[in-house]
Design a protein that fits this description.
Number of domains: 2
Oligomer: single chain
Strand content: 5-15%
Distance between the termini: 19 Å
CATH architecture of the largest domain: 2-Layer Sandwich
């Protein structure tokens, strides 16, 4: 779900139970087994006990579930046949990833790390202060284009085609998550905050198949480290 060249060399690896591939655990999604035998997404990797890890997108996850491959893999991973895989596990996993991303944005907003409002973002972008530019899924193309251009100018990347990342959440959802009114665009000017946000967006958007190319390589690399720290 993440490009290997962006991975820190010292991040612990885990094996995806579906593909069999090994990858740094910060880019994988943990599944946990509850006391009642039900499998649930544990995207923050905090549930006690043995975990199973997946590193595939939603379509591959759905295919493994429908064909029975997922349950067999979970039985082997958890070393028990008392495994109940809910039919809505894929949807619950996507919702958990979205919730983790929105919670992170809310935390950063409360800490003052985010800039909202088109005029303020454009000013910061032209000054070269914006490290990460995000747009709501229902933002207008014209507004996106103007802010993208300001970002490229301020980053000395004119002609590069770099654009802000269009999120998998609309303005209503973003506004609620940030506790602000009418959040259509947002920018991150703090490097550590950009790394933390990139980490959760990378994993969420990678799972649902959205384009991650707007996340700068250096920010995604730092995000990998931030995420790995959260999951240890």
């Amino acid at each position: 779900m993440r490009s290997p060249q962006h991975e820190p060399a010292n991040e612990p690896e885990r094996r995806c139970i579906i593909s069999g591939d090994r990858a740094p655990k910060g880019g994988l999604i943990r599944l946990a087994l509850g006391p009642d035998g039900e499998v649930a997404p544990d995207v923050r990797a905090r549930a006690p006990g043995r975990g199973a890890w997946i590193g595939v997108d939603r379509s591959a996850f759905e295919a493994a579930l429908s064909k029975g491959k997922l349950k067999g893999a979970l039985i082997r991973a958890f070393k028990t046949s008392a495994v109940n895989v809910p039919e809505d596990l894929v949807a619950r996993t996507e919702a958990a990833l979205e919730r983790a991303a929105l919670d992170r944005l809310g935390l950063e907003a409360r800490s003052g790390s985010l800039v909202t409002g088109s005029d303020r973002i454009a000013d910061a972008a032209r000054k070269g202060q914006v490290l990460l530019l995000l747009h709501a899924s229902d933002a207008g193309e014209d507004g996106n284009r103007k802010l993208d251009q300001a970002w490229r100018v301020g980053s000395d990347l004119e002609g590069s085609g770099r654009t802000g990342l269009v999120l998998g959440a609309n303005r209503t959802i973003l506004s609620k998550a940030l506790g602000r009114e009418n959040v259509v665009h947002l920018a991150v000017t703090d490097r550590a905050a950009a790394a933390r946000i990139s980490a959760v967006l990378d994993r969420w958007h990678g799972f649902i198949g959205r384009d991650l190319s707007a996340l700068p390589c250096e920010t995604r690399s730092q995000g990998s480290q931030a995420r790995g720290a959260d999951l240890d």
